[in-house]
Amino acid sequence: MTDFVVTYEYKLHASWETVARFDHDPQSPYGHDIEEEGLHMDLYKQGQKYRIVRSKFPYVPVNHAPRYCIEYSKQNALG
Length: 79
What we know:
Low-confidence stretches: none
Number of strands: 4
Shape: globular
Largest sheet: 4 strands, antiparallel
Distance between the termini: 28 Å
Structural class: alpha+beta
Radius of gyration: 13 Å
């Protein structure tokens, strides 16, 4: 499995704003390894990360995580 980013965004005026972000990038100094840390979601307001949600998510294998993140975003109407 390669690295992934799943971002939920909304369009405000002429630009897109991030609401929530899931990611897996163990090679990056600022990245995360969901195999070791577990899945988490970064929440944003006005372009700034303000909260990290960790305990809400079950164990999800890396190869299933992108689909899980997309479905979670759809089912929970993030934003």
